[in-house]
Design goal:
Layout (H helix, E strand, L loop, with lengths): L16 H4 L5 H10 L1 E5 L5 H11 L3 E5 L24 H12 L4 E5 L8 H6 L3 E4 L4 H14 L3 E7 L2 E7 L7 H4 L12 H4 L3 H20 L8 E6 L4 E6 L32 E2 L1 H9 L3 E4 L15 E2 L18 E4 L5 H11 L5 E4 L2 H8 L7
Length: 374
């Protein structure tokens, strides 16, 4: 039998019975969850468990911000999606799955890029913000909008076997800028697409973030304010690092100088290097350029281009003698981050005829369907 339609403001006692048995939650706590509004920025690896558990817990309104579409490479860790969803917008598919899980709550699919033009407006509409993104630029943007709008930012990040969880922008606590005052140059920071991530780690960290959201909404326990939780999934270890609010922080300090969000403030200036598009690669190679593949050895199993010279970025400076300064090189990695760094190192060593492949070999594979690379 289908459950009867609930009257406005009522609680489905049977659905949430296991919450109601917990003294720290109970009926009053469940009502708090039903009245709460949570914004999740990013519906990917972290967002999947975050959204699933918040919806199951009965959080009354959940906003899902993501302008991306489901890709087959997402399915290893983004458990909200199925093979048949490839190519569909994540925000819409996520909203459909969450509504099927719990039709008694409201889901706001927001299929837009979270940026400086809408950050504060979106944050303002919700009680708590959860960061499910994977770039430094997005993390600074979310943090700054949360500080300025006085909303807590439940932060999480993952890479390979390592994860982090904390709460920023809470009253009296530090913000993300207190921990990382300046964003690193984007070409020096590998992403999950570059370095990989253990799929289950997204579930571990995302579920922990959902736990912190529920604690904040219920007003129970000791939230991770001023504490950075470090997760080592490979060695099954967890440790905690204390973070203190920086009185000189330009955002949350005693004399703040940041009064508005700005896209330019979150992207460190990239190294200025010549680049070519994937569509032009074959023509450039036919003209005599040499492809220099700086991926690490474990990445080479994903596909190679005939005639390429393979020197991993980690070995580049020790193997410069294998390259000829008179030749023209197109430097490529998986997604185009380490190749920018490699071009800069080669420039410092006296190489001048250089370019990097924008978007990396993944971009070339998308352009050239005959290239078997994933």
């Amino acid at each position: 039998m289908r459950p009867a339609t609930l009257a406005p403001g009522s609680i489905d006692l049977r659905r949430y019975s296991r919450h109601l048995l917990i003294p720290e939650v109970g009926l009053d706590g469940q009502r708090k969850l039903a009245a709460a509004r949570v914004l999740c920025v990013g519906a990917g690896g972290l967002g999947s468990p975050i959204l699933t558990y918040l919806a199951a817990a009965g959080v009354g309104r959940i906003g899902v911000v993501d302008d991306d579409a489901v890709d087959v490479t997402n399915l290893q860790r983004q458990i909200l999606y199925a093979t048949g969803d490839v190519g569909k917008p994540k925000a819409s598919v996520a909203a459909e799955r969450l509504h099927a899980l719990n039709p008694q709550i409201a889901i706001d699919p927001i299929p837009v890029r979270f940026d400086a033009t809408n950050a504060r407006e979106l944050v303002r509409l919700y009680d708590v913000v959860v960061d499910g993104t994977d770039t430094f630029a997005s993390r600074y943007l979310i943090n700054d909008a949360c500080v300025l709008e006085r909303k807590p930012d439940v932060y999480g990040s993952i890479f390979r076997f390592d994860g982090q969880v904390s709460i920023f922008a809470a009253p009296g606590g530090p913000c993300y800028r207190c921990l990382f005052p300046q964003p690193p140059p984007p070409e020096t920071v590998p992403t999950c697409a570059e370095g990989g991530v253990l799929g289950v780690l997204a579930g571990i960290v995302g579920t922990w973030q959902a736990n912190e959201v529920l604690k904040l909404l219920l007003g129970i326990g000791e939230p991770l304010v001023g504490r950075l939780l470090l997760v080592d999934a490979l060695d099954a270890r967890m440790r905690e690092v204390k973070i203190v609010r920086d009185p000189d922080c330009p955002l949350c300090g005693d004399r703040p100088s940041i009064a508005e969000v700005s896209e330019l403030a979150y992207e460190a200036r990239p190294i200025d290097v010549p680049q070519i598009d994937a569509a032009a690669l074959e023509d450039v190679l036919r003209e005599g350029a040499v492809l220099l593949d700086v991926r690490e050895p474990h990445e080479a199993v994903l596909g190679t281009i005939d005639g390429a010279i393979a020197i991993p970025a980690s070995q580049l400076e020790a193997r410069l003698h294998e390259l000829d300064t008179a030749k023209r090189y197109v430097v490529a990695c998986r997604v185009g981050a380490r190749s920018r760094w490699a071009v800069e190192r080669l420039r410092d060593a006296g190489f001048r005829r250089l370019a990097h492949l924008r978007g990396g070999l993944l971009s070339y594979a998308a352009h050239n369907r005959n290239f078997d690379f994933f």
